[in-house]
Design brief:
Strand order of the largest sheet: 8-7-6-5-9
Helix content: 10-25%
Oligomer: single chain
Strand content: 35-45%
Shape: globular
Number of strands: 9
Radius of gyration: 14 Å
Distance between the termini: 30 Å
Number of helices: 2
Order of helices and strands: EEEEHEEEEHE
Structural class: alpha+beta
Largest sheet: 5 strands, antiparallel
């Protein structure tokens, strides 16, 4: 798996940053097996999504928890640790008819880096509500 930037466009694109008409930034993450996850980098709650990735990578889940659910302004992301060595994380958007995207640790770390580097796109306006992380036992 390779995480790419817009300048590089190899097969199996992961993390291609795209811009749409009205300064709307999207990141498309594909796993090379047909699974695709598109993140709106302006969506409130993506900082919590980055934290959920980090918690899975560092095995910092509460006892007996197997999944993390992150509620953002527009979506519900479900994350789970599929494999510990090497680390593989499954990510799905609840309610979207698409398969789970499988990310290796290095790709998940690049996604975390992307989300942290785009924090300035997500303004803090409490009119839209807040995000929430919950753990599934």
């Amino acid at each position: 798996m390779v995480l790419q930037t817009p300048e590089v466009a190899p097969r199996g694109h992961l993390g291609e940053l795209q811009s749409c008409g009205t300064q709307h930034s999207l990141a498309t993450i594909g796993d090379g097996c047909g699974g695709v996850l598109t993140l709106d980098l302006e969506e409130l709650g993506l900082d919590e999504l980055a934290g959920a990735f980090q918690a899975l990578i560092e095995s910092k889940l509460p006892p007996n928890a197997c999944r993390i659910r992150v509620l953002t302004r527009d979506d519900i992301y479900l994350l789970r640790l599929i494999q510990r060595a090497p680390i593989t994380i499954g990510v799905a958007v609840q309610g979207v008819e698409s398969q789970e995207v499988l990310l290796t640790e290095d790709v998940a770390l690049r996604v975390i880096q992307l989300l942290k580097s785009t924090q300035d796109l997500r303004f803090s306006d409490h009119r839209f509500g807040s995000s929430l992380i919950s753990f599934t036992l």
